[in-house]
Amino acid sequence: MKKKRLKKKSLLLPITSVLIILAIYGFMVLDIDVEVPSFQSQSLDRVIFILIVILVVITSAKALKKYKDEKMGLPADDEFSLQIKYKSGYYAYLASMYMWLFIFLFRDHFPDIETLLGGGIILSSLIALIAKVIVKQLFNEK
Amino acid sequence: MKNRIKELRARDNLTQLDLALKVDVRRETIVFLEKGKYNPSLKLAYDISQIFNQTIEEVFSFADE
């Protein structure tokens, strides 16, 4: 049987590498500034930092699994994974639009513009992750 | 849509990974197919049926919902 291969080199690994480098850079910046945010005074910064670490860990684990699969000869993407990406991308985009709307509505509650933008970007990533999980589980549901 | 992939795989002593490699999809796709959480494309349904030397109708069937 002649197979038309849908093999694509995964972009996940280089993206993860960049994320890890950025995370290490973030640690260094924190270290140089000395002023490590405390839970009481800058709890929002702490939450954002924890979210970044969680996202980096999840992405790294996924990249490693994908890398192992590719080494075994499995494709990086197939029809199912592509459909998941398209569908979850659509829902994540819609949800992110509303999220940004709410962020700007409550902009007075954020200490500065960097926290607002950084938090928004991280929340967008989380929304994308959650959308992917939900779409995958409910793929055949009507 | 129901399918007999798990049963046929056991008959032919194939693991999910073996089948995934043969039809060039990710292992996760086979898992979701077996659970009935994903309806494959006609091409993939045909490829899977060919692996088991069956027709598409013998492997996949539409069930009333």
Q: Any overview of this molecule?
A:
The complex is a heterodimer of chains A (142) and B (65). Chain A has 142 residues and is an all-alpha fold. Chain A is 73% helix and 0% strand. The longest helix of chain A has 29 residues, at 43-71. The relative contact order of chain A is 0.12. Residues 1-8 and 36-41 of chain A have low confidence and may be disordered. With 65 residues, chain B is mainly α. In chain B, 57% of the residues lie in helices and 6% in strands. Chain B has helices spanning 5-11, 16-23, 27-34, 42-51, 56-59, and strands spanning 2-3, 60-61. In chain B, strands 1-2 form a two-stranded antiparallel ribbon. The radius of gyration of chain B is 11 Å and the shape is globular. The mean pLDDT of chain B is 91. The A-B interface holds A 1, 3, 5-7, 69, 72-75, 77-81, 136-137, 139-140 and B 17, 20-21, 23-29, 32, 36-41, 43-44, 47, 50.
Helix and strand layout, with pairings?
The complex is a heterodimer of chains A (142) and B (65).
Chain A (H helix, E strand, L loop, with lengths): L11 H22 L9 H29 L7 H27 L7 H25 L5
Chain B lengths: L1 E2 L1 H7 L4 H8 L3 H8 L7 H10 L4 H4 E2 L4
Antiparallel strand pairs in B: 1-2
Helix pairs in contact in B: 2-3
How would you summarize what this structure contains?
Chain A has 142 residues and is mostly helical. Helix content of chain A is 73%, strand content 0%. Chain A contains 4 helices and no strands.
Cα(first) to Cα(last) distance of chain A is 34 Å
Can you tell me the overall shape of chain A?
flat
Termini Cα gap of chain B: 9 Å
By secondary-structure content and strand pairing, the structural class of chain B works out as mainly alpha
Could you say which structural class the secondary elements and strand pairing of chain A correspond to? mainly alpha
Instruction: Compute the average pLDDT of chain A.
Output: 78
Total number of beta strands of chain A: 0
Rg of chain B, please? Answer: 11 Å
Q: Regions of chain B with pLDDT < 50 over 5+ consecutive residues?
A: none
| Largest β-sheet summary of chain A | none
Note the beta-strand portion of chain B.
5-15%
Percentage of residues in helical conformation of chain A: over 70%
Report low-confidence residues of chain A grouped into runs of 5 or more.
Answer: 1-8, 36-41
